[in-house]
Design goal:
about 60 residues; alpha+beta; 1 helix
């Protein structure tokens, strides 16, 4: 038997939207200030931005 995915409640969707907006706002602020951001992607740490540190492969 396959579980069915229940639709998100209105409250949880509101919280998710607020978190997405806060993240977008924070990343835009860092971009405008010329700061780098750190992401986790495909099991790796990614530094993005003009002043991002250079990471050497070990």
């Amino acid at each position: 038997m396959m579980p069915t995915k229940k639709p998100s409640s209105k409250k949880s969707q509101t919280v998710l939207n607020a978190l997405k907006q806060a993240t977008a706002d924070a990343l835009e602020k860092k971009r405008l200030l010329g700061q780098y951001a750190v992401f986790w992607e495909n099991g790796e740490i990614i530094y993005e931005g003009k002043d991002a540190p250079v990471v050497k492969d070990s």
